[in-house]
Amino acid sequence: MNRPLKFAYSLxxxxxxxxxxxxxxTSGETILVADFDSGLxxxxxxxxxxLPPASLSKLMTLYLVFEALExxxxxxxxxxxxxxxxxxxxxxxxTMYLDTTDKPTVEELIRGVVVLSGNDACVVLAEALxxxxxxxxxxxxxxxxxxxxGMNNSTxxxxxxxxxxxQKMSSRDLYILTNRLITEFPEYYDxxxxxxxxxxxxxxxxxxxxxxxxKKDVNGADGLKTGYTSDSGYxxxxxAVRDDRRVIFVINGVPSSNQRSEEGEAIIEWFYRxxxxxxxxxxxxxxxxxxxxxxKSKEVxxxxxxxxxxxxxxxxxxxxxxxHFDKYTTAPIEKGQEIGFLAVTIxxxxxxxxxxxxxxxxxxxxxxxxxxxxxxxxLIWKYFLSENKQDxxxxx
Length: 396
Fold this sequence. Notes:
Layout: E1 7-14, E2 30-35, E3 41-45, H1 58-70, H2 84-88, H3 106-114, H4 119-129, H5 135-148, H6 171-184, H7 212-215, E4 221-229, E5 233-242, E6 245-254, H8 257-274, E7 275-281, E8 288-293, E9 299-303, E10 308-313, E11 319-325, E12 329-330, E13 338-346, E14 351-359, H9 368-395
Parallel strand pairs: 8-12
Antiparallel strand pairs: 1-11, 2-3, 2-6, 4-5, 5-6, 7-10, 8-9, 9-14, 11-13, 13-14
């Protein structure tokens, strides 16, 4: 509906007023916790501050790899060369233990990045996708993609998060990237919940995923990535799903691995205990009645195309709901036609969600008698409006 809406109808208050939303405290430098479905940010601290991401930056490398798989520039069973640069660079960090005689598949390299956090695996993938055949060329792609995705506080200087003053990411940017990974590449997301990958059985002790959520079998936990350097501290981009509700969180700059593990699990439990999803209206449920002009019926029932559910705190689940539509909609009206919108405000979050309202019935154009009746009603309404205005003017 392009023309301005003139009429707000049916203001409702649902629920009750309670305590304000609680906040989760972290020992780290930054945190962001969000509800995946609604995009509601539930907690944030220094969310836009660029910090050293360490291996969390591998998520950008994986994003570009998944994008290349979708575009058929790569296939999971393609075998890639391991260059001398990929073999010798970044020694001393986490590795897949590749050497120049190897020709690992793309899928093996993805698992090497996700499960083993292999710096060498990142470089092999980077060189394969780079327009120059070098990691440096791939880094240009990383920075370009960050701008495209709206990651305004991220810069990259390598493909794997090796310490560098130019390698920075904010928690909000990591949330944006994680959201896109889950939304755009669901067919590859299962790699993130893989607990071990004994590549060629080269180093059996190094085959386990470093994600503490997976190690502890936290209910619903299924990703995504850890990071650590002495400069950045300990970081975790985590996610979990329970009863079709997904939480995403980012913590970074945590002082120890034990605190990272404890806080990661605590965030998930906090989310599922402190927030709940409520159904405001079901699909095609009667919500309001809108006046109809020149129709066989004087009103049309309004509802939604889909169920509307929202996340609310368990201690403050008040909602403000209002239907907005023109004072009159001219017949004929087809079932499913958009007529205004429904606004749902969640006071606890200061957020308003808007959904199109649709006609739940077909309303045919009225016959001559219906139209004459409608015209008379309008003339009478205008007459009394004019009379009231004259009375007001006389009193002035």
